[in-house]
Design goal:
29% helix, 18% strand, 106 residues, alpha+beta, single chain
Length: 106
């Protein structure tokens, strides 16, 4: 994981299967880049990333990189009362609507 804090100091942290230590790093205004464990497959942001952002809503941007894609997220509003599974389900509903729209055009 690479963290660039609000003052543009750069930190590098190696984690394990469970977590990555960010002790002593001021995350306000930080940009965080990480790669999820390979065992997760080709994924974007997981529940653990979402839970982290709920606690650290002052992070400027979080980026997730895997062998095929790069993703990034910046929070636009408070997510304290948002549930990860609701967002995940909404994402699938959105994709399904897009697929159906394309099928209707054919």
């Amino acid at each position: 994981m690479v963290i660039v804090d609000g003052s543009r100091n750069v930190y590098y942290s190696i984690g394990n299967k469970e977590s990555v230590s960010l002790d002593g790093i001021d995350l306000k205004g930080a940009t965080i880049t990480h790669n999820p464990p390979e065992s997760n497959g080709i994924v974007s942001f997981g529940n653990d990333d979402f839970s982290f952002l709920k606690i650290h809503q002052d992070v400027q941007e979080m980026q997730c990189i895997n062998p095929e894609y790069s993703y990034k997220i910046s929070l636009l509003k408070d997510i304290t009362n948002v549930v990860y599974n609701d967002i995940y389900l909404d994402g699938f509903k959105y994709l399904w609507r897009q697929i159906m729209k394309r099928r209707m055009r054919l």
